[in-house]
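Form P-L/3: holo structure prediction, ligand LTNE7NMQ.
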Amino acid sequence: MTIGDAPVRVALLGCGVVGSQVARILVEQADDLRERVGRPLELVGIGVRRDIPRPGIDPALLTTDVASLVRREDVDIVVEMVGGIEPTLTYLLDAIAAGKSVVTANKALLAQHGDAVFDAARDSDVDVYYEAAVAGAIPIIRPLRESLVGDAITSVLGIVNGTTNYILDQMHTRKSTFADALAEAQSLGYAEADPTADVEGYDAAAKAAILASLAFHTRVHLDDVDREGITEIDVQDIAAAERLGCVVKLLARCTVSADGTVAVGVHPTMVPLEHPLAGIRGAYNAVFVESVNAGRLMFMGPGAGGSPTASAVLGDIVTAARNRVRGVAGPGESAYSTPGITPPGAVRSRYYLSVTVRDEPGVLARVAEAMARQQVSIAAVRQEQGDEGGRAHLGITTHEATHDAVRAVVTHLMSTDDVHGGVRVLRVEGA
Ligand SMILES: NC(=O)C1=CN([C@@H]2O[C@H](COP(=O)(O)OP(=O)(O)OC[C@H]3O[C@@H](n4cnc5c(N)ncnc54)[C@H](O)[C@@H]3O)[C@@H](O)[C@H]2O)C=CC1
Ligand SMILES: N[C@@H](CC=O)C(=O)O
Ligand code: NA
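OUTPUT (holo model):
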């Protein structure tokens, strides 16, 4: 608790893309922030890995002794903008044990070690806020944790990774290569330090785990998320989506299955142009929430980048500071439910299958029969063109089927002489 008129003292860890913007706003908007908190918000230290000059930053604030900074008596709130698991987790737990409130944007850490962090915060009666951890600037954590906590959420569907949305958007609209679009996303500050986390879907999976935990009042971990990245998306997939009136998006999907278990997945998905998520461009994110009483809600805005992300971080700092001034901790997570996780193979979706077959009588019937045997119902078949080698290309869309059933179809097709090469499979979102 902060005493008298004393400032609320903030220690910042990490001064990269996001941390440097947090430091800038704390200084540039100090007067307004003081009014909003009721006390000055004072930046008392910045923990960095390398003690080098940083433009606009008072060198006296910098320290490489981060372990000591998080425990210092003159610190009330620790703002973690480092990323990664260790030593970050140790810093956060040490800060909490020392009675500091914590603000973090670290979805990877929360999706793997959230239990330890939240339990420690509850035991120490301090705040953990993490609005920036999911969908950057978009308010989505607080709406789920507070505004919608009296409702019953049935599904959360979202574009929650700015880097991959930027890449896919550039592949569709500018016909950029994957590599060029990724390099641009990195130079714009959207990508993680290791962009594998973005393009292989780990970042979106961590965010999906956090969203599902909040939406369904449970604890979903990174390992519970069925994950597929976008590294295999090529110009053929982009062209196929366009022929179907769709765009490819990396979608995070959190739903409740018929048996009450929770299904959480991240997959490149064909999204019809008329769907609200199809129009989300560049590094923007959007989260589509459906609940029993409110109905359908959509949250949209910048999902990555230093300044937008810092906006969400500052919101958390002000909230944590106000709580400290009042000597209270804000609402924690309500994770009372244990529904279990739906096995990935049992999750239902619509699919697109791209198959190259022998261009001969009876082949299409045998493909259809293989699908019928697995209860995979065909919605449409499009024969794209024959080629000189006597082959035809089929683009098949299905009605809803389980992933196990579609996988069995693919395994069978590839064992026959009718099919040449592999079978490309992508999910298709309903309009
Ligand atoms: N860049 C973005 O658009 C967004 C980033 N985030 C999250 O924000 C966090 C920070 O991301 P960025 O600023 O983009 O990363 P960054 O790589 O630009 O900055 C991280 C900084 O932490 C420093 N650092 C590394 N290890 C350290 C240590 N042990 N002690 C002190 N400093 C250390 C690095 O030198 C670097 O300056 C990550 O958790 C990331 O996932 C969340 C939303 C959006
Ligand atoms: N690398 C992330 C940054 C925000 O979380 C992204 O691209 O969305
Ligand atoms: Na957010």
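COMMENT: The two ends are 50 Å apart (CA to CA).
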